Amino acid sequence: MTDTSRPFAAYRAGMILLGCYIVLLTKVAAMPEAAWTMLAVFAAALLSGFVGFGFAALCSAMLVHLLGDPMRALEITLVCGIAGQVMMVWSLRQDIDWHACPDCLVGVAVGLPVGFYVLLHGSSRLAAQALGVLLVIFAVAALLRRPMVIDCRRGIADAVAGVLGGITGGVAAFPGAPVVVWCGLKGWSKERQRGLYQPVLLILQLAGLAVLAAGEFAGGRHRDIDWSGLLYLPAVLLGTSLGMALFSRLNDKQFGLAGKILLTVCGVTLLL
Q1: At what angle do helices 124-144 and 156-172 cross, to 10 degrees?
Q2: CA separation for the pair 225, 209 (Å, rounded)
């Protein structure tokens, strides 16, 4: 067996073990939707590991339809999404741009409360659909035209991207869209792009989980988080790991194409 085939042989074994775990989970947890939930989490983790974003948008969209409970879908998505982001940040730790991250994070700190306010008191559904339309238009236009590169140093522009990311994270559970788009417009390598937006997404998701833990989504009443999302961690870890393995085989052009396609898919999910 060659060196390149060994990792994927391990992933095949992991898929078999995940299948066994799904069977066990449906027997022990007495949740008829457990198998479909596990597959949805795995698919979202695989795509997220591949390009570094989109887990929240894809997973929450699928789980809302599977579970019929938006709050439970959001809680499972956050718990699993954080696990995946931790794994990706650790894998990319040598590529993380720690000097540029603070600019984005300052913007996120400003934008996230605005996003949560719109979610709680405004027309969050309309805002999410508007974001979906913008993403689809941008991604399709980017696919049809030559790549555009903006030569801009870090600073105010990164902070603005962070503000927009905080807003979309609160409104539509999709914090990565503006920051991902901005990194792509800079013409950076795939590692450098993910080295900026990966830790930002992790911190955004941690902030979202903290808000849930504080009971802010229950109209001021305390609500315990549904930690059943921990049951789906094997699917997250396997899907993310496999996605990262595929990411390592992409060149920068292929990565850019994959990112635009996934942005289009995420935009469509926000319209559903």
Answers
A1: 130
A2: 9
Q: How far apart are CA 117 and CA 68, in angstroms?
A: 24
CA 241 vs. chain centroid, Å, equals 14
Q: How far, in Å, are 117, 207, 268, 271 from residue 128 at the CA level? A: 14, 19, 11, 7
Q: What is the pLDDT of residues 59-98, one digit of tens each?
A: 888 888 888 777 788 788 888 888 999 999 998 888 887 7
pLDDT, tens digit, 9 for 90 and up, residues 156-200:
778 888 888 888 877 766 767 888 888 888 888 899 889 888 888
> How far is residue 26's CA from residue 34's CA, in Å, rounded to a whole number?
6
Q: Where are the domains of the chain?
A: 5-271
* CA-based torsion, 168, 208, 202, 45: positive or negative: negative
Residue type, 97: D
Q: What is the pTM of this model?
A: 0.83
Tokens 């990311």, residue located:
165
112: Cα separation from own chain's centroid: 16
* C-alpha to C-alpha distance for 123 and 119, rounded to whole angstroms: 7
Q: Tokens 């417009």 identify what position?
A: 185
SS3 259: helix
CA–CA dist 267, 139 (Å, integer)? 9
DSSP string, 52-74: S--HHHHHHHHHHHHHS-HHHHH
